[in-house]
């Protein structure tokens, strides 16, 4: 699954709020690593009707027991082989206004341990007939004694009058009815408007535990099987599934004329990768090496050519991954579909990948460079899963990091193959390494791989879909690929995929095959791959490596943002790592060095005079670096006089490491601020982005205090040369910069110049927005600049500007444009508008469910909206939690996003009270985020007390009169 819910990985939608007395910056949170799988309360679609159902009852709620049906994990007694599933979604409501689907399923399974019990997952399904069991051999099957739904653990429980025989094969047949809800999980409905007419479609999202909402199944990733899918659907619709459609015929069922589409049997696969969709969408097609490639979307989106970019890059990316994995694409087709309502960025269903519209559809007239990049990287991420995750699948969710971390790493390689001029591979440093450092430096972080027994309930499974799994996973695999060298890494990877195809693995299986490649190529390592990598996988956090260039002394420590935080999670490795250090002196790159102890002395790291050292070249390692003060001073001098002497990614690193080392009280805060002084001469995007990401923390801490004015003046002073540079480069803002990163940095220049109060900038963008208001049919604003311009103009304006943008949002037919307007509407400084907008998030007719939490977070990013969003969440938590479900991936982002500015004792007490008041309601996948927010708030309080005065004095001195 893609890192859903992010507006743009690299640019983000930036909210800039202009107040009456000062210009307040909002950096709208790029919300990643989330998927919102909203779940209804227990639904009984047949309630109040005359439909015949069986006498299936729910087991009474009792204290936990040792009964098998009270365990969230399936017993090891039965193994599925083949499913035959027929489903009929109703795209019109019944006489009670409820949308339903009906279906039946036969599953053939084999008994591997003698048992008189069948446990099969089923959630929110009503059986419409008693289940039947038949034997495929000569011995009759045992008769069914009783059956019931175990609601808590989501099982259909079937007790038998006799034991199933080991080695015997049996067929279980069920008929059922479920609600085709709008909850974005399982088999659900999505709505959109076409030519003024409301249209409905049925689609799916099974990962991680919602296939059981579509039909009874053994819903665990290791329970791979073959699936034969048949869909009944309205004559004007088209049906899609994982396999190719092999027959569509007209049928009549209960007097209703339908189409019946049968699909070819799938390959052996996990339930969470299933997909079936019924819609009136159209497609564009291509063929690459005998693989049929299709892109499906709304008719008007296809007619407008919005699927062309995705279609054009999919074939080359598939070819790249075939060569990278040394393995042919395992399926005859690759379908991709853009859905109006979809929680994640995308989902890697095998052969039928589902996307948010913003993650697949590209229109050069409205889509920015960042939108295009996002589409390329998400398609690459999902195609990477076709092998790594789908062909070879993790045995259980505790190793999710292997699936998602790997795809999050190679998505950059696949996108680079399609767009080689972008130089996109470098962006992993900003988008993944530095982003996850912030979370992994907390005492409440967690290791990449958990114990199986710690990840069993659906909400626990949902909780592992986080930044650690995606971005830390990507970062450590990138480090591994680097020190092995890519040819050796790919050799082991290919061996792993070929050996385990159509099966399941644990992460150590990958280590074994990489070790074989190391041995075959005589690659020099200080110890085995397992010995090196288990320290990065089985213990949380990462080290800071300190190099004393005067003595040649190297040491490592577990890096914590709050040095006083209490690490209660034990580590078998005592929080020490085997660290690969790529490094350079001013004279050139040095040989790879392995730090294998807590501290060591090596004369190679001693320098004298004006010589200097930079370690962790190109940020290929997953660690931070600190130096003795003399080396820091020499590096600061080089930045001021000849910054290009230091590699680009290490300029990025020096800024990010310095700011975070300062937050951890390892170096002075003023030293970190000094890394930004050279930026007035820097024209590259990534160092600017690194600095602005870190200064965002200063805005959060100071935008309610007297320090804010000095911070604004300093930023304005530093960014004005960049603003002038792009003004000249673009011919007074008429042209678009040629370079990929130049286009990004132009956005940085405008948004920071405007947000820091440069009058020329605010006048410029407000003028563009007014031109649009005067002639709504012609938008004069360049697509790259729209997010920033919309936000700035709405912040500087009043109700007139807000209402205009709201009207354009409601009428937007292109999802990417709607997304920019939706985010910009959170930038207003008028409280009643923000309060009204927060209320809109609870109405799916105004703000789609998939966008609700992201919108609330964006409001909270606004200094005016922060207390309003916090009050709103506290007042509505029980309702939001119920409607959006305890297993929702986005709760962690919601809690973290709303509380990130908290920095007072009063706010800490409110947060703790919120935790206590809602202990019975619960926080689902946000449970860990509550603790992280409390830890972060404590750290913020301490940081402010220690640094506020020093920062204000430094800023005063750094501002040129």
Mean pLDDT: 91
Number of helices: 26
Beta-sheet strand percentage?
Answer: 15-25%
Outline type: globular
Low-pLDDT parts are 4-63
Biggest β-sheet strands, sense, barrel = 8 strands, mixed
Calculate the terminal CA-CA distance, rounded to whole Å. 51 Å
Using only C-alpha atoms, the radius of gyration works out to 28 Å
Number of strands: 34
Provide key terms for this protein:
five-stranded mixed sheet, eight-stranded mixed sheet, 26 helices, single chain, 961 residues, alpha+beta
Would you write up a description of this structure?
A hairpin with a 2-residue loop joins strand 16 and strand 17. Helix content is 39%, strand content 20%. It is α+β, with helices and mostly antiparallel strands and 961 residues long. The strands form ten sheets. Strands 4, 5, 7, 8, 11, 14, 16 and 17 form an eight-stranded mixed sheet that branches. The protein has a five-stranded mixed sheet with strand order 19-20-21-23-22. Strands 3-9-10-6 form a four-stranded mixed sheet, with no helix packed on it. The two termini are 51 Å apart. The model is unreliable at 4-63 (pLDDT under 50). The longest helix is centred in the last third of the chain and has 32 residues, at 927-958.
